[in-house]
Design brief:
Layout: H1 3-6, E1 33-36, H2 44-79, H3 103-112, E2 115-120, H4 143-150, H5 159-168, E3 174-177, H6 184-199, E4 213-214, E5 217-220, H7 224-238, E6 244-248, H8 254-262, E7 267-272, H9 274-282, E8 286-287, E9 293-296, H10 299-304, H11 308-317, E10 326-331, H12 336-345, E11 350-354, E12 365-371, H13 375-388, E13 397-401, H14 405-417, E14 422-425, H15 431-442, E15 448-451, E16 464-469, H16 476-483, E17 493-499, H17 507-516, E18 536-537, E19 541-542
Parallel strand pairs: 3-10, 3-11, 4-8, 5-7, 5-9, 6-7, 9-10, 12-17, 13-15, 13-16, 14-15, 16-17
Antiparallel strand pairs: 1-2, 2-11, 18-19
Helix pairs in contact: 5-6, 6-7, 9-11
GO molecular function: ATP binding; hydrolase activity; nucleic acid binding; RNA helicase activity
Domain Helicase ATP-binding: 165-352
Domain Helicase C-terminal: 381-529
Length: 560
């Protein structure tokens, strides 16, 4: 009985049309994939015995390796002279091997969270099982990193963390497909710290020769808000270890960021937006030649915003994959443009998909769509809704989306005159004002936040109870991302969408999204034309089928 009986490691010979060119070693995905998914439960007992034997054998090998490493360490310390720089933190193996202590629980975890893990066959390794308990990190990561993680008070890893940690801690590339708010920051953040502890040596030597500050970990994000949020979360992990980091983004003084970068010798992690990172790298303020751990967060959004040339230029300034650069890419969807980027710059990545890699609405969000006559009706309905949920006194957070900046300002002013505590975030606000608005909303000091789509992706605002689409967005993709601001982290949420005759072109797409998520379709919505014009987007490809079933209409033509 082998592990293969317990899982369907499907040796697929069908080629994906998006993974075609190049050799497997160069990141090609044409090769067949090992696919790790839960299968029949009747094999669990036999599989568990085999897995436990393998785990026991693995532990023995690790124990031997540790003893050998200890002897080597003693010999090296006797022969070497004292270093002028502080000694690195003692570390475990740079590429820890993961065998779950409870394979049955790992299989159940895959099934209950609808997870698929795939790796190119040419790696000669099946994808690792998820790590469903933090205790499984014992002996696999440095004690200081583990202590930092324990201090965060997490009870169990999220699905994306459980599946990515075993891969990233073995120094392999990862493509993570999961919804925003699923814990992706710590999914790549913890391995980043381990990478710095075990692999980092640039600050001991090369930094003296660098033109500007040099870093080893680079995280690129599509928006200023997401970059700031990511840096704040990573700082919680790295602060106790003395690992410095900085966030680089536009809208504020570049000179001040350069000054901070140069005056902080402990900076090893940079989080930033593509434009500002590339700008500072080109003018010599930021040296990317020492980057060995690269993360592209919200990759689909960055490509959708037209950042692909900037991303490719940034990657070209980092160490190459042949020089040992490890790359992680996280995305909510898996469109052709993202696949192409992965083919170009990643080295045989393991692909972890939590849920579906297609654009779909979060099923934990209860969607309500109301068809209204006009803008005046929307204003009255919003006021009635807010009073019905006691928004003037309750601290339940409600995120209200407008389509344009002027509209957002008008809604904010109207609500404030009505006695509501409200903040706004849109393009006309300065960066400091936007940060302050977000902080007030997160702390529920102002439980209402009026936003344009700048806040629709990436921001992880906890405990948003309601999302209101005051004006329907320009695309159905933005609709899905908007309502995804609630119902995060396994919780439920509610969305309310106002739909008018001005939005009728989106009726067919909206009906399909509602049906796919098993949501109620209001009868008034079906009265609009439901034909969907097939769209081909440079990032998202073909979105939807041609037609949505609707009521037949008789069309007559005049003879003349």
């Amino acid at each position: 009985m082998t592990l293969a009986r317990a899982f369907s490691f499907i040796h697929s010979h069908t080629q994906s049309p998006s993974w075609r060119q190049g050799s497997p070693a160069a990141g090609n995905f044409e090769a067949p994939l090992w696919r790790l998914q839960p299968q029949q439960p009747h094999d669990d007992d036999d599989a568990a015995v085999d897995d436990e034997k393998a785990a026991k054998k693995r532990r023995k090998e690790e124990k031997k390796a540790k003893k050998a490493a200890a002897k080597a360490s003693v010999a090296t310390s006797v022969e070497s002279t004292p270093a002028a720089t502080p000694a690195p933190v003692a570390s475990t193996s740079a590429a820890a091997s993961f065998t779950p202590t409870n394979p049955t629980a790992a299989r159940a975890f895959l099934e209950s969270n609808n997870i698929t893990i795939e790796a190119p066959e040419e790696s000669n390794e099946r994808p690792p099982l998820p790590m469903v308990d933090f205790r499984e990190l014992e002996g696999k990561i440095d004690a200081a990193v583990k202590k930092t993680l324990d201090a965060q008070g997490f009870s169990t890893p999220t699905p994306i963390q459980a599946c990515c940690w075993p891969v990233l801690l073995q120094n392999k590339d990862v493509v993570g497909i999961a919804e925003t708010g699923s814990g992706k920051t710590f999914a790549f953040g913890l391995p980043a710290l381990q990478h710095l502890v075990t692999k980092h040596n640039v600050f001991d030597g090369n930094k003296k020769k660098a033109k500007g500050a040099q870093v080893n970990v680079l995280v690129v994000a599509p928006t200023r808000e997401l970059a700031i949020q990511t840096e704040e979360n990573l700082a919680k992990l790295g602060k106790s270890m003395g690992i410095g980091m900085i966030c680089l983004y536009g809208g504020v003084s570049k000179q001040e960021q350069v000054r901070l970068l140069n005056q902080t010798p402990t900076v090893r992690i940079v989080v930033g937006t593509p434009g500002r990172v590339l700008d500072m790298a080109r003018d010599g303020s930021l040296d990317l030649s020492g980057v060995t751990y690269l993360v592209l967060d919200e990759a689909d959004r960055m490509l959708d915003k037209g950042f692909e040339p900037d991303i490719r230029a940034i990657i070209g300034m980092c160490k190459s994959r042949e020089e040992g650069r490890h790359t992680s890419m996280f995305s909510a969807t898996w469109p052709p443009a993202v696949r192409g980027l992965a083919e170009s710059f990643m080295n045989g990545p393991v692909r972890v998909t939590v849920g579906s890699d297609e654009l779909s609405a979060n099923r934990r969000v209860e969607q309500t769509v109301e068809v209204l006559a006009d803008g005046y009706a929307k204003e009255r309905r919003l006021n009635d809704f807010l009073r019905s949920v006691n928004a003037q006194r309750s601290k339940d957070k409600i995120l209200i989306f407008a389509l344009y900046k002027k509209e957002a300002q008008r809604i904010e002013q109207t609500l404030r005159r009505g006695g509501f505590k409200v903040s706004g975030i849109h393009g006309d606000l300065g960066q400091n004002e936007r940060i302050a608005s977000l902080e007030r909303f997160k702390l529920a000091e102002t439980p209402l936040l009026v936003a344009t789509d700048v806040a629709a992706r990436g921001l992880d605002i906890p405990n948003v109870e309601h999302v209101v689409n005051y004006t329907f967005p320009l695309t159905i993709e933005d609709y899905v991302h908007r309502i995804g601001r609630t119902g995060r982290g396994g919780k439920t949420g509610k969305s309310l969408t106002f739909f008018t005759d001005m939005d009728k072109a989106h009726a067919g797409e909206l009906i399909r999204v509602l049906k796919d998520a098993d949501q109620k379709v209001p009868e008034d919505l079906t009265k609009f034309p439901t034909t969907i014009k097939k769209k081909t987007h440079s990032s998202y490809g073909d979105h939807f089928k041609e037609l949505v079933p609707g009521k037949a209409k008789k069309i007559t033509f005049d003879d003349d």
